[in-house]
Design goal:
39% strand, 279 residues, eight-stranded mixed beta barrel, alpha+beta, 18% helix
Length: 279
């Protein structure tokens, strides 16, 4: 199964501050509305390829969230990811047959500020929290353009969408086995990343890289606090690295050049970067 990223999620205590932080970094966010759970609301950073960053918080600051409560109230930043499928019932049944724990598909909705209803089906995979290790599946019930469109100047940006999820895990070999069982992903490229002090397993043809901490530090502390879940996201651009973002730090990840964006407040988004397009 070729995974196609639908969206990735960034959680924080204050949605307005989240939106301001991303907009100031050059990724303009637009308010997306309240979810049907009555607790959370979200903003969208939409890209040309239809993928997006979902910024999420609770409407009431002290209210417990049914989704990603600890990352929301702990300003945890990256917390979940979703892949888009056409036939969510068939894919869900196939994954259940492979021995993956499946919950769904279930129907959800939110209402945008202009009153437009957005509906989709969602399936949770695995034992952990929604989209924390294995992605959750999502399929639109209403036209997709109701759920996401390019925001701000991103319709003309060289950045076209979410390229890779960097997934923090406590046990790399167990995570590799889980992804092989679910999606027949085999023979990852292995290496080390100095910035994260991590051992890495990446899949050149799939949009995910697994990282296990080698020493005590940011990554190990994050996994201890929030459990296994995304630690960062790479955004894809057309051709060379774009210079659209101020204060970006040039570096690399698994041999790919990266411009890491300066999004560190109010949440732990230390690792959102832009990479050139694959040849």
């Amino acid at each position: 199964m070729d995974l196609q990223i639908d969206h990735v999620t960034v959680a924080g205590q204050e949605l307005d501050r989240l939106g301001e932080s991303f907009s100031q970094a050059g990724l303009e966010a637009e308010y997306g509305g309240r979810h049907s759970n009555g607790v959370t609301h979200m903003s969208v950073v939409g890209f040309r390829d239809g993928s997006y960053l979902e910024l999420i918080s609770t409407v009431n600051p002290d209210e417990e969230s049914p989704w990603w409560n600890d990352p929301i109230h702990g300003d945890g930043g990256p917390c979940a990811w979703a892949v888009r499928v056409d036939d969510i019932e068939t894919v869900s049944a196939d994954l259940a047959d492979r021995g993956i724990t499946v919950d769904g598909p279930n129907q959800y909705e939110r209402v945008r500020d202009d009153g437009t209803l957005v509906e989709w089906d969602l399936t949770t995979l695995g034992e952990g929290e929604l989209g924390s290790t294995l992605p959750f599946l999502i399929s639109d019930r209403t036209p997709r353009e109701r759920r996401v469109q390019p925001t701000g100047g991103l319709a003309e940006s060289l950045v076209h969408g979410v390229d890779t999820v960097i997934l923090g895990v406590p046990d790399l070999e167990a995570a590799i086995e889980e992804f092989e069982t679910a999606f027949e992903m085999t023979d990852p490229n292995r290496g080390d990343d100095q910035r994260l002090s991590a051992t890495v397993a990446s899949y050149p043809d799939q949009p995910v890289a697994l990282v296990e901490p080698q020493v005590e530090g940011f990554l190990a502390d994050r996994i201890d606090e929030f459990g296994p879940r995304p630690v960062g996201y790479l955004l894809g651009s057309d051709g060379e690295i774009t210079s659209e973002f101020s204060d970006a730090v040039e570096d690399s990840f698994m041999g790919r050049p990266v411009e890491w964006l300066s999004i560190t407040d109010p949440v732990g988004c230390r690792y959102i970067g832009v990479v050139p397009g694959n040849e």
